[in-house]
TrEMBL record:
This is SDR family NAD(P)-dependent oxidoreductase. Coiled coil: none annotated. InterPro entries: NAD(P)-bd_dom_sf (IPR036291), SDR_fam (IPR002347). It comes from Paenibacillus tritici. SUPFAM superfamilies: NAD(P)-binding Rossmann-fold domains. Pfam families: adh_short (PF00106).
Length: 280
């Protein structure tokens, strides 16, 4: 699949999890992919979940890209990353706001008043605000192109506004949905689609580690039957980026499982994993 040839993409938080999956699939589809994150790694660490490791994977897949070490909680570093992309490419077609610090504390279903207030900084400073400020610096570059349709994705969680069970997580994820909605209105005249993208239960590094397994052996573990790989959300992102009618979806939350049905892609094991839904 090379339908993103000539497109320039930025995936924040691209060294692991959903960010890694999205970066690899965009690169496989032909885009030049910038990845940012706080763990640069080294060329000798190829295969590790670092920026260098993911960039090595991109190159081994025949793709092209670059890594920029960036802490998106520091506005100066975010601005510098966008400035580098502008200097090197003069454009940005696809922005994937994926940076997220919300998992630094366990996300439990305890009542709000029993949870540590530190969840706010993890989920809002290192999550919602980090994505907001990436938009702040990137949108002027995207608007300056005026050449075709642009795309901004916010990885989040959405199940028709059902409560997730964790106050801070629910508040932050819905803030991202609302951020995308507001920007979709403000950027409509620029033909830049802004879409909240909601994966299901992904087999991220943290999930696999918690089950004591890895991607090669996850099927041997009870309880992981309904999980999806991080490539699944990546294929959804690539399909949205290649859709000439993507503006018809701007501002509307999209679940990865629903997009698999719409566009006809599967997960790496050939399944179309249904859209994740909160029970009850």
């Amino acid at each position: 699949m090379t339908n993103l040839q000539g497109k320039i993409a930025l995936v924040t938080g691209g060294s692991r999890g959903a960010g890694r999956g999205i970066a690899l699939e965009l690169a496989k589809a032909g885009a030049y992919v910038y990845i940012t994150g706080r763990n640069p790694g080294t060329p000798q660490g190829a295969g590790e979940r670092t920026l260098a490791g993911v960039l090595d994977e991109i190159h081994r897949l025949g793709g092209s890209g670059a890594a920029i070490r960036c802490d998106h909680t520091k506005d100066g570093e975010t601005e510098a990353a966008i400035r580098q992309i502008a200097a090197e490419q003069g454009r940005l077609d696809i922005l994937v706001n994926n940076v997220w610090g919300g998992n630094n504390l366990p996300i439990l279903n305890d009542p709000f008043w029993e949870q540590a207030p530190e969840h706010w900084d993890n989920m809002f400073t290192a999550g919602v605000r980090a994505q907001l400020m990436t938009n702040y610096y990137a949108i002027p570059l995207m608007r300056s192109q005026r050449a075709g349709t642009g795309l901004i994705l916010h990885t989040t969680f959405w199940d028709e506004y059902k409560y997730t069970g964790n106050f801070y997580y629910d508040l932050s994820k819905n803030a991202l949905v609302r951020m995308a909605y507001g920007l979709s209105i403000e950027l409509a005249a620029d033909s830049i689609a802004v879409i909240p993208l909601s994966p299901g239960w992904m087999r991220t590094e943290l999930v696999l580690e918690s089950f004591g397994t890895d991607e090669a052996h996850w099927q041997e573990k009870e309880g992981l039957e309904t999980t999806e790989s991080t490539a699944y959300v990546g294929r959804a992102a690539a399909a949205l980026a290649a859709d000439p009618e993507v503006m018809t979806m701007t501002g509307i939350p999209q679940r990865v499982g629903d997009l698999a049905e719409k566009y006809g892609f599967t997960d790496i094991d050939g399944r179309k994993v249904p859209a994740f839904r909160i029970s009850g």
